[in-house]
Amino acid sequence: MERGNTLSMTESIRRDGESQGDSQQSAYQAAPAGAEWPPPPAYDPAQPVAVAPGTTVWPGSGQDGHGGHDGNGTGGGYAYAAPAEPAPAPRRRAKGPTALLAAVAIAAAAVGGATAYAFQELTGKDVTTASSGTSVVPASKKGTVAGVAEAVSPSIVEISATSNAGQSTGSGVVITSDGEIITNNHVVSGASSIKVTTSNGKTYTANVLGTDSSKDLALIKLEDASGLKTASLGDSTDVKVGDEVVAIGSPEGLTGTVTSGIISALDRDVTVSTDESQGQQQLPGGGGGWPFEFGGQEFNGDTGSSTTTYKALQTDASLNPGNSGGALIDMNGNIIGINSAMYSPTSSSSSSSAGSVGLGFAIPINTVKSDLEKLRSGSES
């Protein structure tokens, strides 16, 4: 009787509330037929324990006396570790098209400013460059010769170079506020002293920084100059035949003379002398001018045996001795060329040979820009 009662009580307890280990084992036994459940563990799973905050608790291996489920190293006990550092908060990542657009905008901004920034970093100068669509002419005078003259004349200077052969007069274009000026090599070659007069009448002494006779270009620098009005250098690849242009220079020593015309041809092969002695033939009032060859003919005298040929813009804007080194300008006020060669009658005794004949040439401004680093380096060639 007593044995039977004991069995009945045991069965009753297990039905009404088994111990935790027994209930888990019963759960495994109660799995439906055919279910792909994992087999029951060989021993009861470890139970949670209360520990100090920040302490990490891991189930023990049951070996080497480091704990078991009975606390004596014979089962699945616990191994204790030092408190762990809190895990860093996960980094939030932008999602969706908004993040993509933001990334594209940043990249575009970087690319947009890359060219000008790179040029300034390499040269350390504040040269102003512009596309053909950028206008420096006031809106009320845009597209007019008067508007171009007003905007650009302060950036054009007169150059007087003295050498053993005499004195020559030319023009130049201010490209930095501290007095860097682009002109023709033949205007300053062989000069022992150079004086520059700005549009407001102020005179400076200048020194040659670099020359390139192969392109008939020179870079000079004013002494103790600051705050000068700089010209905007355009893009000569955008120039088309028939485009209106303005020329500003000092023909025959007449400072700030403005003439206008059109681009009459592109990519003309113009041959000029690289001999220093030829650079001083351009004397105010002396007739002739800088000798050059074009179309198999020589103009303004003999170019000599040492010559160079470059591609030039042709214009019918009136150019005369003294315009050399001055600016050829588009109607937005951007410099598109440096005037370098022009036909001048050797005699004015007859009316048929007097005045401009509409045959002038300018070095494309893109050629000038590509040569600036070489000129700044002090190269003399």
What do these coordinates show?
The chain has a domain at 134-376: Thrombin, subunit H (Beta Barrel). Helix content is 20%, strand content 29%. The chain has 6 helices and 18 strands. It has helices spanning 2-17, 20-29, 96-123, 145-152, 185-188, 365-376, and strands at residues 56-59, 78-81, 128-129, 156-163, 166-174, 180-183, 193-197, 203-212, 217-222, 232-233, 244-249, 257-273, 292-294, 297-299, 307-315, 327-329, 334-342, 360-364. The strands form 3 sheets. Strands 11-12-15-18-17-16 form a 6-stranded antiparallel barrel. The longest helix is centred in the N-terminal third of the chain and has 28 residues, at 96-123. The protein starts with a helix and ends in a 5-residue tail after the last helix. Mean pLDDT is 75; it is low at 1-28, 61-76, 97-123, 280-288 and 347-354.
